[in-house]
Each structure stands twice: as C-alpha cells, then as structure tokens.
Amino acid sequence: MIANVNTNRVAIVAGARTPLAKAGTALKETHVTELARVVMQETLYRANFPAELVDEVILGNVVMPADATNPARIAALWAGVPHRVPALTVQRNCASGMEAVAQAAARIRSGEAKVVLAGGAESMSTLPLLLPQETLEPMSRLARAKGVWQKATATAALRPRHFKPIAALEQGLTDPSCDMIMGKTAEVLAHEYGISRKAQDEFALRSHQRAGAAAEQGRFDGEISPFYAGDRFEPVTRDVGPRANQTMEALGKLRPLFDRRDGTVTVGNSCQITDGAVSMLLADANFAREQGLPILGYVRAYAVAGLDPARMGLGPVFAIDKLLRQTGLVLSDIPLFEINEAFAAQVLACLTAMGSARFAREHLDRDDALGEIDPERLNVNGGAIALGHPVGATGARLVLTLLMEMRRRDLELGMAALCVGGGQGAAILLELN
Amino acid sequence: MDSAIRTATDPDNVMTIWLDVPGKPVNTCTPQLLSGLSAVIDSLELSRPAGVIFASAKARSFNAGADLFAIRDMDRPTVTSYLALGQSLYERIARLPMPTVAAINGDCLGGGTELALACTYRVAANDGAISIGLPETKLGIIPAWGGTTRLPRMIGLTRALPILLAGKTLPPRKAQKAGLVDEVVRPEALLAAAKRLVMSHRDRRQPRVMERLAARLTPARNRILAMARRQTEERTFGNYPAPLRLIDVLKAGYDNGFSAGLAAERAALLELTQTDACRNLLRLFFLRQGAKRRASDQLKAKPREINYAAVIGGGTMGAGIVHALIRANVRVRLVEVDPAAVSGALGRVRKLLDEDVIAGRLDKLAARHAFNRVSPTIDWSGLHLADLVVEAVVENLDAKHEVFAQLDKLTRPDAILASNTSSLRVADIARATAHPPRVLGLHFFNPVNKMPLVEIVRAPETDDASLATAVALTNRLGKTPVVVNDAPGFLVNRLLIPHLAEALALAAEGTPIDEIDSAMKQWGMPMGPFELLDEIGLDVSLHVLKSLSHVMAHPVELSPAVEQAVGRRWLGKKSGRGFYVHPAAKRGSAPKLQVNVELSRLVAPHVQAAPVSAEEIQWRLILPMVNEAARTLAEGITDSADDIDLATVLGLGFAPFRGGLAKFAEDVGIEEVVRRLNDLTTRHGPRFAPAELLCELASEHRSFPRPAAAVRSPSAVATQSLPALQDVRL
C-alpha cells in the first residue's frame, strides 16, 4: 500500500520561458545560468512571490557547463534566491526539465517543501569543442615542465592528433551503449514501423504550421517572457524556429542526415538544436490558497520507464502505459497530449505502437492496444521540430505549454511525454481543477 | 571611561594598536583617541616592538578624521592645542624606529589618512565602498596634521597636488594607483598583509626620480606651484581660499623644510577656519549630516522596510533611480511600454554600473549581482511584491493618472506610490488613486548618480509613515532628503525658474549670453544659466518654464526665441546645439563652448545693449531667487531656511562657499536685499517687487525662519563620507 491519503496536492502557480532560439542565433552568447536566472525571476514576479520564501530550486540541465557545475545553484544565486535555499540540478537527458518538475512535485507531495522553483535550461550554442582525453597527459607535463629543456621535450611530445577537436554536441547526442547517434535510433523506428519519408515530412510541416499559427494568434504570449540578449540587450520576443513558409518541396529537398543513402530522417523532420529556459513555481495547493497565490493547474502523476536504447524513441509509449496504470486511467480519458517531437519518425512510431495490440502484448503486458491518439489532440501548438528542443528545458516547456492549452480549452486532464536518449521515456499528467 | 585604544603583541613581537572609539559606530580622531595613542607611543619607546600595526576595531571604518562636531564646540585655544597635539603625535609616529603600517579596513578620511601617511606602509582592504583621502579643502580647510606636507614627499608633488587641491576621496584600487596606499588585499587578509609589510622592512614609498628632482629644483617647483595656483584660480574664481592657502603651505614646506611646512599647515588652518567660506562649508556639512534627522523629526511615524521596489519608466531618470535602488540592495521590477524601451532602459542601467566599475566604486562581480536585481516587464506583473513604486514617466498629468490608476489596482494597499514629477502637483496625481495617503513625491535630480539631493514631497493627504519610509530610503541610497510641501516645482525648480527667466530677459536686452554665464560662474555657480538650459534641454526647460509660469508672482514673459529654437531642434547638449554649439563629446576633455550666434540673434534681434557689469548681472539673476525663496517660505512649501540652503546647494550647486541661497541673503542683509529689489523694480519692472515676507523681515530686522535644528545624534558622522560639494552640478 503506497498511497497516502494525506498527501498534498501540487499546484502550478506560475511559469515563464524564454523564447526558444535556434542554436547560433539570438541567444547564442547567453550563458545557460543567465537564461535560467531571467525566467526564474520572471516566474517569481508573475506569482508575486518573494524569493525569500522559496524552499528549493530544482533545474533540469543536460550538458552542465564546465564553468557552472550545478547550474541550478548558480542560476538561483544570480536570481537573488537567498543563500539558505538549496538548489539541485537534475539530469535525465531529454526529460531533465520534466524530471525537475516531477521532483519538485514529489517534495511538495511529501510535505518536505511548500514551494519549489523548478524548470529546465539548456544552451546548446555554448557547448564547447573538446580536446581528446589523451591530450591531457602531455599538456599537464608541459604545464609542470621547468627549464627550457624540459619544456622543449614536453612540447615535442604533442602531436597534431592531440588538437583534433571533438564537438561536445555530437558526442552528447550519441549513446555509447548502443553506439548510435539519436538520429540513427529514429531511422531504426522508421524502418521497423514503416514510417515513410513523406509521412515524416508531412508531420514536420504540420508542426511548423501549428507553431506558426499559435505564435500568430498569441497562444505563446502567456508563457514567453521577452529576453534581452547580449551586451546591447537585443529584445528576443518570439520563438526563432517556426518557419511560416515551410513547404513539402523544401522539406523534400533535404538529404537524410544519419544515413545519407538509404535514410529518411533529415534535419527538416527532426527537432532543432536550440537554446532556452523554462521555469515554474510549484506550491502546496493549500499553502497556495492561504497565500492567495494564483493556481494554474495541478501536477497529478509522473512516470518514467526504461526500454531498449536503440529504440529510445518509443519511450513515450512505455511511460504513458506506466502512468495510466499508476492512475487507473485509460488513454481515451485524456483529451490533450504533448509528445516531444525529437523526430517525426519517432512520434509517428509511438502512435503506431500505441494503436497496436501486438505491441501491447509483446511489450506492455496488456491484452489490448493502449489506444489511439487523435492527431488533432496531439501537439496542437506544434512541437520541437518547429520550436526546437533545448534538451534540458523541453520537459518543463511541454508542461507549461500543455497547461496553458488545457486552460484555454478548459480541459480537465492533459498528458505530456518525451523519449529520452539512453532508452527511457517520461510522462506527466496534469489536471486543471 | 573606556579607552579608545587597545594593544596586543604577537609572538613575533609585532604590536597591533586597535583604534576603537567607545560608543560610536565609526572611529574619529577624538581628543580621547589622540591622548590614548600618545600614551601608547610613549610606551613603545620602552617596549620596542619589531613592528606596529594600526588597525580599527570598527567594521567598515578605519578613521573618519577629526570629529567636526567636537571641533565645532571647541574654543579657539582648544582648537589650537588639539591641532598641535595631533601634529606632534603623528610626527612621533613617523619617527618611530620600527616599521609601522596602517591596515585600512574602511573609510579613511582626513586625519585618518594623515595617520596612515605617518606610517611606513599603508595596506587597504579591497572593497570599492571604502573611501580614502584628504577631503579637507571641501570644507574650506587643509590637512594640517602633516598630510599636506607628507603626501607630496611620498608620492611626488605633481601627483599629490590634484589629490590635495580637489579634496577628492578614492576607493582602494584608485588610491593604490595614486600611491596613497601600497597594497590592496582581500579584506580577510588585511592583518596578515599588514604584518608581512612590517616584517619586510622594505623602503617606504618614495616619489619617482623625476618627481623628486622637480620638487628639489626650486625653479621647476615654483613653476609647478604657479601653474597649480593659476588653474585653481581659474576653476574657483578665487572664491575658495583653502586650495590657494594649501599651495602656499606646500611652498613654505619645500622652501624652508619639513618642520616649516608643518608650522605653515597649522597657521593656515587657524586662518582658514576664520573665513566665511569655511564657516559656510562646515555649516552645510552639519546641515547635510542632520538632514535625515531633521526630516524624520517632523514625522510621527516609523519608516517601513523596503526590499522590493518597482520603477515605472526606464528613461534617463527612471534608469538612474533603478541604478540607485539596486546599488542599495533593493530588488527592482522595471516597467516599460515595449521590448525596445526595456532594451534601452537596461542599457542605461548597465552603463551606470559600468561607470561605477571604472571608477573603482564597485567590482565587476558586485556590479553583476546589482544588475541581476533588475527584472524588466512590459506587462506590469509582479507589482504586488513592491513595497515602493517610483513613477518616472513623461511629465503629463494624463499619463501619470493612467499609471497611478494602474498602480492602485496592482499594488498592495500598504505600498508607497511615489512620483518623480518635477513640475506637477503630487495631490493632482494622487487623485487617480483610491488611497492618496500613500502617494508622495520623490524628486530625484538629473543625473541621479551624481546629484545628492532628493526632494520628498508631502501632499496634503500624504501620511507620515509613507514620508518616514521615503526619508529612510533616501538616506539608504546615500542621498540627502529634504521634505517639502506640495506645490508646482516644489522647492528647487521653483527657485530656478525666476533665475532662468531673468537670464533670458537679460539676454533679450542684448547682453551676450557668454557674458551672463561667465558672470554667474565667477559668482560661484557651477554653470551659467545658458549652459544649464542647454544641459537640461531647451524642450524640457521650455515645458517647465511654461508650466510653472503661473505659479510666479509675475508670469514669466518668455522670449519666443526659445520656442523657435525648439522648433529648429536646437535642444541643447543632447542635440549638439542650443545656446551653445556642443561638439561631439570627447573623453576627458571639456572643450570651450562656442556661442550659437544664430540663436543669440533670435533672442535679441535688434537690441544693442548698454554694457552691463558682471555685478549687475549677478544681482539681477540671484535676487529673484531670493525673492522666490521668501515666497516659498511664506507659502509653507518649506518652513526652514536651512532646507533652502541645503536644497539650493545640493540641487542647484548654488555657490557652496556662500552657504546656500538663504544664508547668502542674510549675509547681504534682508534690508539690503529689499532695497536692491526695489531699485531693480524701478529700473526693470514689477517682477522684481520684493516679496511680502522680505519686507516684513526687513522692517522687523529679523532673519529667515530656521526652526531649531534637532540635537545631533552622537553617531551623526556615521556612515556618510564628507559631502562632495564642489562636485555638485546639474
């Protein structure tokens, strides 16, 4: 018996995010802790809640920068959160931001905390170029060398290969356990679930169209807080990724990236590499009511599942399955979904798998298929293919975007899920009242 | 009585002498401290420690120098002996056989710096908030405990002169550059560094060879001193005797030797304390120190704490106010209309912080933390957190009403709503709210980071708690509060209007504007009225002159030339052309301004003026201010001529050596003022007609009302460093 009758409900009080900017564009010079600092402050102000009363800060971040290990702590201090308030950075790859929200919710549910500032942040523009590990030894010998002779011999030991740079980004997107870059896992799914190039491109196009329309109609206004970038404080007010003029022809011209000859996954039907940060204030619902804080919605449940790393794109299916079991709900109870668009092929494969009774029997220990998700109820404001995927931030971004849309449509339930590199899936269930 | 001195000797036989004036938050050179020190120095001659460290037991204060409040109450013979006591004590310290060091952990001013100069070495904690220097000339005196004589012998004559003459204080890093301190170390390592220095037995700092040579060779030295004298005369128009006497003292010291220099210091100080300039400057110093107390004594409420503030509008004034608040650890929500405006506002705030960093007042890290205290918004969210909101939008009642109506809905009922208006009535603005008692004026001056005055405006309904909080906050921002009642233009701008209007009238008669400006600068104003108009901006000036015209006893007859100039976009300094042509600003040099002849022609199209003497110009431009000051007293905008003095000096840069506008009028004599105004009335019209109050005071042989100043607090010297009177400008 795990259920505790006295558990506290977890309210989401306020949230804000930076515009999402394609790596190398508007936010390319901004440090990840600065992205997080700004949205944390904005969130607190939106909630009219003083930083002094926050119990903990939890931030999702994947590639923790060398100059700010535990970026949650640094960002919290930059934001003026008092020294006595602890801060934790969580890393569950693409689900890091969602994990942060979930951990915050868990703290509140258990009564350990009343108010937690949670979110995620990633600066993919500032990922460094690395030198090979084997460079370390000759370099440190050189640093220790005394006198001309020692220095000369130490220098002579360095070879051109010692200086061959490694892109941290590419390395980070590769799973060593199956030796596959993420795009390759999408190719596996495209092949196994028969997802055509055309189907992927159509999905990608729709993502751009929906994101473009959402921006046009101001549906992101409630979540985006303008960011003032660089020394000149250039205002960044909108997401940079969505392309209003995206066409099937343009998408069709792109060459597959991960299998040049026989593949179907292109940069056009994959998520964009992006910078951005998201923050949310979560509070014990009773406390929120006592304090007169606004309540946007509630975090009801969260589940993480593991699966074959080479098919990590199916993570959402496993996580959604687990979450439904946990809550006793069925798929058709959920009127609105966000499934992170790491790759069009991967999302489409998830939909196929969820609709398949065979998949259910073989992988989910269920007799019947999980169910169908109406495409009109999935990623209604576009997804990472158009908006971009700042890896550590996306999980929290999905929660915020989903919640805003639930409020707009006055829907009681909503679910967000992501696939996670390394073979995991995460899903979260939100409710409005 | 507790002693002000404690000593401790460590196993290496290094003695630390702790300065700790009992019962005060800061150290000053009280007679008690000096006699305590003297006794310790006596004992040193027997105990012979390996080295001596002078350290302070007070947090953030090494020694703020002579206790001016104590000196004020001394009679002349006591001052003379106090002076001699300090000088001989420091001389004995300088002659100690073992190395000595001053460990400067906080403000080190005047006599404090002279103590440090008497030591072999000086080491300071790395904290931009610390001021080090010899500000005596700002008070109309000179360093007379050996500072004038010792400093040039340590860092060189040409490097010492600007420091001594301007009385400028420096943060540690700049002080190190200037040679005032030998090392700047992290605060925790201060005593360790001090000990390392005394154990090092290295040579005391000496001027560079060329400097030593220049000082040794009489003709070279005389040329340097003559040049300094000329420059000082040009800058001060001979209004300030102290810097000139200082040059005499330097000369005496070099011509006739070290002890002759010390003797000259003493003689000069005693002489200078008898000058009007010194009395006036000291009086202003005391007024300024007492300003907070005077302001709070009027109020029957305790200030509330301000942790969160909001500033509406991030233009020049708004950004300046944001900067002042974040420097004082207040979190600020900055409200602007659109992202482009936010971008500009953040840029302005960052620039002000960068200036602090360049000046050494703030290190880069502290500047970053300060900047992070600003959070901009275009959707007015987060205002419920604000304990105080300062509105700094355009000077337009409708715009202000819109803002205050919003604030009324968005803020907590206990939040203070302040307007930075300069020409509107606070009560009119407060009408837009449902709760006027929390509305007041917080009138900062431009540029906010340089101007030390804040007018706190009390509207009829404003409650004391709000005012008391505003007074406390102003003080926390390092500025001087003056509480005034609500009337258009409040005090400072109200007094400025007749001055500017009369300058325009004089120019319209054909007197060249550069002659007018030059006459006023000679008189002691930091800039002439036309330079000031250019600085403020002709558009802003025109708006203020027009909107305040009706408040004057005689409406301002404004020359149409100003309007024409604004039409031509001759807006003054900001547009490059106004009454003067302003060349693009070059760093560090102030080019001589050329008159914009075309505008001068517009102002005085046909008239060929009979030459007007500088004195005539001065009377015509100052007396209308005196007249207006009398009216503000009569109308109860302020009840104290002390506040008029303080506000005119700190808000307008009004000739500090004259002690302020009201004090000047009293020194002239109210009867004489009335006589001269009557005379001007006959010659130039009824706008000069003396105010009723002036006539009344004159006939009853009374002076302006100055309600008894509150008894000073024993710690009044506390945290503020000496005022930067000569820095004052608009």
Describe the structure.
The complex is a heterodimer of chains A (433) and B (730). With 433 residues, chain A is an alpha+beta fold. Chain A contains 15 helices and 16 strands. Chain A is globular and about 75 Å long. Mean pLDDT of chain A is 94; it is low at 1-5. Chain B is globular and about 80 Å long. Chain B is α/β, with parallel strands linked by helices and 730 residues long. Residues 710-730 of chain B have low confidence and may be disordered. In chain B, strands 13-12-11-14-15-16-17-18 form an 8-stranded mixed sheet, sandwiched between helices. In chain B, helix 19 links the parallel strand 17 (453-458) and strand 18 (480-485). The A-B interface holds A 37-38, 41-42, 44-46, 48-50, 78-80, 226, 228, 231-235, 237 and B 307-308, 331, 333, 339-340, 342-344, 346-347, 350, 368-369, 372-373, 375-378, 381-385.
